[in-house]
Design goal:
mainly alpha
């Protein structure tokens, strides 16, 4: 259930951010989501991966099916691969970007929590 919530928290707001900010804003947003949510590292990465892949794969599919698939077909011919491989590569790049961003935010939170705990225990009076 937490993975589904993570997928939705990553993909829906990032969808709106992608219209106004650069492509890497997906990673920054996913990092903020990872910082706010307290999940295990692997589950958080999986949620970010699925959210980013859903978002960028959805964008790519939308543009391909809206008649702009001509450019995708020509690029696929240049690389010597079928057109769906480029769509799959786009989804994978978006997923990895969001997954690593979310994992970075989660690990930053873990680092800060650990450092504050050490600071509290070192400044506590000895009884």
């Amino acid at each position: 259930m937490k993975v589904l919530a993570t997928v939705l928290l990553v993909s829906i707001p990032a969808y709106l951010l992608q219209f106004y900010l650069p492509w890497w804003s997906l990673s920054v947003w996913a990092g903020l989501v990872g910082f706010m949510l307290n999940q295990k590292n692997a589950w958080g990465f999986l949620g970010g991966l699925l959210g980013g892949a859903l978002l960028w794969g959805g964008f790519a599919a939308y543009h391909i099916f809206q008649g702009e698939g001509y450019m995708t077909h020509r690029m696929a011919m240049n690389f010597g691969v079928p057109s769906f491989v480029l769509w799959l590569a786009t989804a994978m790049i978006g997923g990895i970007t969001a997954g690593l961003g979310l994992l970075s935010g989660r690990l930053l939170r873990q680092f800060l929590d650990d450092s504050f705990q050490r600071k509290k225990s070192s400044t506590a009076p000895n009884a």
